[in-house]
Amino acid sequence: MSLLPVFDLGLAVLVLAVAGWTIAARELFSSVVGYVAYGLLLAIVWVRLYAPDVALTEAAIGSGVTGVLLVTSGARLRRAGEGEAVAPGLSQRALAASLAVLVAAALAAVVLLLPEPPPTLAPEARERLAATGLGNPVTAVLIAYRSFDTMLEKVVLLLAVVGVWSVAPDRFWGGAPAPLGRARPQGALLFLDQALVPLGILVGIHIFWVGADEPGGAFQGGAILAAMWMIVMIARLTGPPRIGARWLRLALIAGPAVFPAAGIAGLGMAGNFFAYPAGFAKPIILFIEAFMVLTIAVTLPMLVAGPPRGSPEP
Amino acid sequence: MSIALDLFSLVAIGLGAFFFFAGTVGLLRFPDSLTRLHALTKADNLGLGLVVLGLLPRVESLLDALRLIAIWALIQVSGASTAQLIGRALSRRGAAE
Amino acid sequence: MSAATLAGLVGAALVGLGLYGLIVNPQPLRKILAFNLIGSGVFLIFGIVARRGASAGFPFDPVPQAMVITGIVVAFAASALGVALILRLHEETGAITLDLDASTRPPGEGARDT
Predict the structure, then answer these.
(1) What pTM does this model have?
(2) ipTM of predicted complex
(3) Same domain assignment for residues A133 and A252
(4) Do residue A303 and residue C77 have CB atoms under 8 angstroms apart?
(5) Is A251 among the domain residues?
């Protein structure tokens, strides 16, 4: 007798219920809290799907950092003042509901009619895994087999930061974003920082390092480091840096710069763009990942901090 | 011996689940936010401790056991601090009303 | 029904829920939330494709999982850009919906200087 299907069913119902609460809640803050809880439940679903790397990423970035982003921006909107918003009428709701049901039904049909036997790239992934020297196939896909995708994704992150900064008025360019936390942090927050941040930095580096052979990796570790910097900023122990600061800009481009450099070096070392020389692959992969972690740890908090709000000092 | 350990795990995790359930009942039934916060922090911390205790016989190495205990300690620290912050915000809002 | 199929159906339902929330909620921040919901539903469907691709000794197919990880990070970046645009729109016009005809500013408040 197995209880697992019952657990799966209960989990599915819970996920849908919390997602429904997120849509139906009256206040933005309740909705965001619901979304964070939904993200954590989703992480458990990912574990049930044998995807621990995705579960870590969903918990850290999908629900954690996105939750911080929405809460801080919701607070900024509230502080700036609110007016009335026009809610749609019943007929519009009915139309939207029928569209939603249609799309959901189409996707459900796709899910139920997926081809049997399922196509898969796992055998190819298994073949070359030994050559990369890694134990975690997802990391191998990210940095070895599909490294081009990951490199372009780093560029997307950089573009997002540039986009967020460009939204500011011209006279603020080069200044610092608005502080993340309240003016006078409470003792409990300072205590949390002192207790959590040193440990969190260790855990972040550990998860990045271990990601070569076990679930983990650059994104997950970088997200934890980013979270540590964010709670330090929220406690007002340090402010968001000026966007014109040289160290900040170097850190932001470290990932997207080292990656293609390693790819071009592959031309010389192993005969092909983005090829890693046999036997030397793992150190190169970890080298690239280290710079990726640095960039992610700096990019995520800058995306949450937002556009610059103060004039740069002369 | 292993049957005794399994039984111990079962009992501890079952008790932990019961405490989580009790905390949720408190969340739903207590009259105002501060009492609900109290129910959540006390019951959930104890529940988590019992669950971790129940999982300890099932780990494969000492390092994993230490990791479980470290996770429990971290959750206690962050849970306690968060509860303090929420309580302060609640009392500030209550004083303003 | 296996865990994978159940998760896929949940993903489809989440896309529907998110689509409804995206259309119906007037506040832009709630729309971004609903958009994230749609995204996570799509990722779940990717995830079951990965789970069903179990073979060659792996309990999953690693390629779709790597794509989902990439997707989660990019979805966050897009949300951050959207939030920055919303906050700037609010600063400029005081609007908290995207509806151009709705009068949303309380009387007496002027738009901020550029």
Answers:
(1) 0.90
(2) 0.91
(3) yes
(4) yes
(5) yes
